[in-house]
Amino acid sequence: MSEQPKRRRSPTGADRTRDAERTRERILDAALVEFGEHGFAGARISAIARRAGANQQLISYYFDGKEGLYRALTERWRTRSGELGRQDAPLDEVVSAFTHVGGDQRHWVRLLIWQALAGDREEGDAAYQRAMVDDLRRRRENGEIAPELDPAYLQLALFGMAVAPTLLAHFAENVTGLAADSPEFIEGYREQLRLIVARLA
């Protein structure tokens, strides 16, 4: 006697929600790689769908196309960045955390380069960046940064230090003898940044 085939259980509402969230995150991860490698203009929705293992129509459904996907990526980065730049954390820990993200998120740094080269500005960029300067101003008032340091210029310098290993990977390897994405380099660089930032007071 043959066994009756088991009926597939239809996903519950909670399962469907989790599946949709996982698919959405897979699409965003794939979009980050594609935008990082080709910039906004060169990125292809079909390539993103292939990378994500998702139906191309889902990108339109979840993000309303390429521009919506790009905006969602930017929003995801701002959320992540807010978590890293906690106001209650010492500045050396904040800079160190961003350096680690720069190592893990090479595609995001590449995307920033594409934006800069194209002269693109995302809505809300200026306010988001001014908030980071305001945080440094608060830290200066609290004595964490020397009074003669200008928070705006300091923010630019700290951001440059955080992304330098990704932007200047060959230079980093030439001067240190370590590959810029190696654990040894990343840990050494983070420790040196901690020491540099500690001297800002």
Spell out the helices and strands N to C: HHHHHHHHHH
The gross shape turns out to be globular
CATH class of the largest domain: Mainly Alpha
**Main sheet?**
none
Helical amount? over 70%
Task: Summarize the structure in words.
With 201 residues, the chain is mainly α. The chain folds into 2 domains: 14-73, Orthogonal Bundle (Arc Repressor Mutant, subunit A); 85-201, Tetracycline Repressor, domain 2 (Orthogonal Bundle). Helix content is 75%, strand content 0%. It is built from 10 helices and no strands. The termini are far apart. The model has no long low-confidence stretch (mean pLDDT 83).
Comma- or semicolon-separated keywords:
201 residues; mainly alpha; Arc Repressor Mutant, subunit A; Tetracycline Repressor, domain 2; 2 domains; 10 helices; globular
State the gist of this model.
The chain has 201 residues and is mainly α.
Topology readout:
Blueprint: H1 13-42, H2 45-52, H3 56-63, H4 66-84, H5 91-104, H6 106-118, H7 125-141, H8 151-167, H9 169-176, H10 183-198
Helix pairs in contact: 1-2, 1-4, 1-6, 3-4, 5-8, 5-10, 7-8
